[in-house]
Amino acid sequence: MVRSVTGASVLGGLRVAVTRSGARDPGDPLVRILRRAGATPLPVPLTRTAPPGDPGVLERAVLHLPGYDWLVVTSARTVVPLVQAIRAAGVRAEDARAGGLRICAVGPRTGKVLARAGLAPDVLPERFNAEGVVRSILAEQRGRPPRVLFPRAEEGRETIPRQLRRAGAEVRLVAAYRTLAVPGAGAQLAALVATGEVDALTFTAPSGARLFVEAWTERRGTGPVDGRADRLGIPAGIGILALGPSTADALRARGLAVDRVAEPYTFTGLLSALAEWVTASG
Description:
Radius of gyration: 20 Å
Structural class: alpha/beta
Shape: elongated
Strand order of the largest sheet: 4-3-10-11-12
Largest sheet: 5 strands, parallel
């Protein structure tokens, strides 16, 4: 819940850069939630999604859907290509579920998108991150090690498959989509920061975080402007916020301090983090 001062949201008029793929879509959920809170979203998507290098790999994988114990979905962007692949393969998801397949979604938004597609999740982890997914699956599994189908981004992190395999699980990784840089978007966002046209930067994925830091570093040259090396020259009055720990780690690994990390790791959590940062910074 975003707090208010004398009836007005503390985010009123705050210019917030939205860097996630699809940010220019009028229906983008983060853009929508920011507008409702009184902020002014500045959509600058740093990445876009595209089909994987081999578009048929997902269809071939779902042919064996009934043989898996778990289907793991960690991004809402996986849902559309997943459903398309299931239909193209002629597989009945309800038959697979009747045979014991269970679905784990990383969080409530992904769960809602799955449910709308007829694939309502059986499990949502208490913590909306990779470790939460792994704990949830292992806690539910009984008997033999689980067989897991994990469609994801082509360049996805290895945390979930690595931890599941250590526990004895058989994990099939398959690319559902890939993430590509939007040409010139990093430079555009860096220019907004340099000219003082943005109050807060929000990052929802490590890929976007990396692209911005690279573009900002290239633009500014050398030497911190605000006197703090961990700001990389970004003025102290500009907030830097991450949706989750992996995105925050990507920023810190490149030398950029993070003002707030959303808790929980949802868009609502990011909105609350923005409000906390505004209140704390005055």
